[in-house]
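Appendix B. Raw example, untouched.
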Amino acid sequence: MIDIDAELVRSLVREQFPQWGDLPVRPVPRQGWDNRTFRLGEDLSVRLPSAEGYVVGVEKEERSLPVLAAHLPLPVPEVVATGLPGGGYPFPWSVRRWLPGDTVENTADIDRTKLARDLGGLLTALRKVPAERGPAAGRHSWFRGCHPSVYGDQVELALKQLGHEVDAAACEAVWADALTSAWPHPPTWFHGDVAVGNLLAADGRLCAVIDFGTCGVGDPACDLVMAWTYFGGDERPVFRQAAGLDDDTWRRARGWALWKALVSMAGLSSPDPEGFQSRVLLRVLHD
């Protein structure tokens, strides 16, 4: 990961976009893993990949976001300029319109049932966006949108490393169930990282979706993992009904949630110091 601070961002903006050079720069309170985001004045933001593996998302979002914005019922980021490497920073980066709202993760008064319904509806709308020119799922999307079997070796390794920390037989059963089907329809758009940190809320309701760096076209099952990472009780059936996908797709989605939980717990993916993914695993196994 590259050390990215406000002074670096300020230098890049002044050098490449002098029209915004006098605007204040400040980091957003909670940063993502793939990119670092800074507020630029009141109306703009700057987004910079944190490592080389995330650079492909810069050009992809610049190309894809206008297509998605024209069809989705909620706002998505709007790229207004793309910067070049400079000042010791080696990657392209982007300037975007600032989207108001706070992440669902930091919104205490969110109506979770309404969120389940609205998010399911948004994902349904996303699948209807014309996909002919969308980027086919693959390495650029970290294989989101592909069949979950692409990560079979990681699931096997994680179970081996975790040993008796998890119910291996139950995990293997869920994983096997996830692999018994494949998306039988033409590829559709998927977001690739539907999570509470990438959903914005205002007045207790979903108001925007951000971070399309792992988007593409393929199997939309990967976009359903919020069923286990966030929703519970009566909320999950509401989300499932609003998302409008069949049982096979939900079994693959459960497999995606299982994979992420296991590889995080085993230290093969992004860190999970607070044990969030271990709680997700319990929900996956008990569903």
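End of appendix B.
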